[in-house]
Each structure stands twice: as C-alpha cells, then as structure tokens.
Write a structure and sequence with these properties.
alpha+beta
C-alpha cells in the first residue's frame, strides 16, 4: 500500500525528484518500482504482518514504501514513522560511535578490553588480556560464536553472564578467525561510556541521532515500549504469524541490539554512511568501519546470497561483501519478532533498508535479488 496522505510531503518530494529526471533517478526508477511491487507481493504471499523499505541514492530517496499493519489484525497501518527494532543492525551504530572516539584519540582499537572491563576473564586469564577493542568491534575475539546468547535468551542479566566467560577457552587467537558475538560485542559500550563520561544512550543521541535528525530513533526497551507508533513483534508458527510481547533481554546489549528506528530515519542513516553527512561520519570514519577485517567464509554459503557472493569479511560493525565483483557494505538483524537488513554500494552511491515485524526469510531473498538487479543493470 502506498504512503498517500500520511506521507504526502515525502511523496511530493520524491515525485519531484523523479519528474526532474536526473540521469541517476531515471537509471534506478524502474528498479525501485520493480522492488516495490515485489516487496508487496512477497510480503502478502508470506503473510508477513507489516514492513517498510527505503531505497536511496546520494542524498535523495528514490522509493520509500510501507506494507501491512503494525499489529496483525489491527487497523493501525505501518507508515514511514513507524518504529521497528533494528536488532543487530544496531552494531553499525556502535561501530561508528566507537570510531568517532578513536579518531578523537579518546579510544584506541589496540586497547585491551580488560582496561574497561577488568572483571572479564577467560579460562586462561592471559587469553582475555589479549582481546582488544578492535577485536570486540570486529567480531574477531576468538571466542566460541554467539557465546552465552542462550543466557540472554533466558533473560539472564549481563552482570551474571560476564563471570561465565571464565569457563571458556578461545577457539583461535584474537584477530585470527571470525566469531560472531552479541554479548562480547556489547563490551564496547563499557569503553565508550568510560571514555566519554556519558551513558551509551546519551552519547548516541548527541553524536548520531540528533545531528542526523533521526527523530524517531532511540535506544532501549523503555523508549521502544513508550513509542505509540511502533511495530509489534510476530513470530512464525506452524499456524502462521503470532504476535508476541517485546522482550527486554537483548536490549541490555545496547551496542549489539539496542537501537529502534523508523524507515524514514534509516534513510538518513544510509545517507550518512554513504558519505553525505561528513560532520557526523567523516570519510576517515567510514573508511575505518568498512575496512575488511577477518574473512567470514560462512557468509558465502548464505541462502539466497551464495550464488552472488565472491568474498565476505567483517569490518567494524558492518559486513563487507564482494557481490558479483562489486563491493557491498551490509548488515542484517534478527530478534524475536523482527528482521532487518541494510546495505549500500559505495560505487553506485545507492542503498536500501528493509524492516519487517514478522520473522521471515523473505527479507533475505528480497535483498539479494535487489542487488542482483542493480549490478546487472549497471553493467548490462
């Protein structure tokens, strides 16, 4: 369904851009329309309760559209200001925030995490002493993948989880292999707070949300549940989608999974990462967070994406793909009842964000097919 009255001003702006018909708009207008049609078709076929997407190029929105309901069975429709949980796409904000402090010489990627979190230890204490902030943000700590996510799922508090790391032995030395983390990734928040003298929530509002005018963006469970225009979570069951309650468990890992935002604000976040807000994200910061680190070979076997991916690495809060020979900066997220995906091509200055309030693999196929079409057209 189109945005129509609820988004008239945005629609007028978007239409005006296309009527002016600059070359880039003409080039991707058809792909935008095709994606819009496919988005509605696929969400309807898969009975996803609701969703939103935006496609941007440069500082312009090519297409922004929404589908369905904020809550299954209700009359409240998703619109451009409806807030979703971003889940692991939150990591892209943490990487940027930490890099800002690094470039101001307030943090160092080489600093051991123990400097900020002395209670963190592994089975052999010297192993934990070798893990730096760069390893934490770059998913190269050497810890068993998803260490203690099971305890987060069980709503165990972080201060009870950290001592459990003393039972772990690394699977490889820090910086050598890829091992995706949520709990350990969130340790970057301790360093950010100690060096800035502000809470993570305060600093991200001051450094990112406010200067980018991300007016619906927030951090945390309280902020989300007090937002009237929010998308409720739905999980997939054998009987279809079922609405569930928003859980606070992953919100305690704010850098890893704590951000909430609307699709309108995700357009602004994409544009900033594509280099169009240099006062917030300078070219040096963008280069820093998108420089390939450890190789992520498991990504090359991803359903829907594997036929297109030539190579994959993790940067600092972002994944770096080689997609049919083209560089693609990417991250996805999942948390009970929500799936998210955001990606952009530095080469084409083109980006897309997708937010759904139902757990569905359709988001993966939509994203992969979009980029396949984009790069095929660009070099067709």
């Amino acid at each position: 369904m189109s945005l129509k009255t609820a988004l008239s001003s945005l629609a007028v702006c978007s239409c005006a851009l296309l009527l002016n018909a600059p070359a880039w708009a003409q080039s991707y207008q058809n792909i935008g329309k095709s994606f819009q049609q496919n988005f509605h078709k696929q969400l309807k076929q898969n009975k996803v309760p609701g969703g939103a997407f935006v496609i941007v190029q440069g500082e312009n929105i090519i297409t922004l559209d929404t589908y369905g309901k904020r809550r299954q069975g209700s009359g409240k429709k998703v619109n451009a200001d409806t807030v979703f949980r971003l889940a692991s796409v939150s990591k892209t904000f943490a990487g940027a925030l930490a890099s800002q402090l690094v470039h101001e010489h307030k943090l160092s990627w080489q600093q051991p995490i123990n400097h900020y979190l002395p209670e963190f230890s592994l089975a052999v204490p010297t192993d934990s002493e070798a893990i730096t902030l760069g390893h934490v943000i770059g998913q190269s700590t050497g810890l068993m993948p998803n260490s203690y996510d099971n305890l987060v799922n069980a709503n165990v508090k972080l201060n009870k989880i950290i001592p459990k790391f003393a039972e772990l032995t690394p699977i490889c030395p820090p910086g050598v292999c890829y091992s995706y983390q949520n709990v350990a990734f969130s340790f970057i928040g301790q360093a950010i707070e100690q060096e800035s003298g502000q809470s993570y929530e305060q600093l991200i509002e001051k450094r990112i949300f406010a200067p980018l005018s991300m007016k619906t963006a927030s951090i945390g469970y309280e902020a989300f549940t007090h937002t009237p225009n929010r998308a409720e979570p739905h999980i997939k069951t054998k009987h279809g989608f079922k609405q569930v309650k928003v859980k606070p468990n992953y919100y305690q890992l704010a850098p890893a999974a704590g951000v909430n935002a609307s699709i309108k604000d995700m357009a602004k976040w994409l544009m900033a990462n594509m280099g169009h807000q240099p006062k917030v994200l300078s070219p040096r910061i963008i280069e820093d967070i998108t420089t390939p680190g450890v190789r992520t070979t498991k990504e090359l076997r991803r359903r829907d994406w594997r036929r297109y991916l030539d190579d994959a690495h993790y940067g600092k809060g972002w994944r770096i793909y080689q997609f049919n020979g083209h560089r693609l900066i990417y991250h996805a997220g999942w948390v009970a009842g929500y799936v998210t995906e955001v990606a952009y091509s530095p080469e084409l200055d083109l980006g897309i964000a997708i937010l759904l309030n139902g757990e569905s693999r359709v988001i993966s196929s939509l994203g992969a097919e979009f980029w396949h079409q984009v790069f095929a057209k660009d070099h067709g």
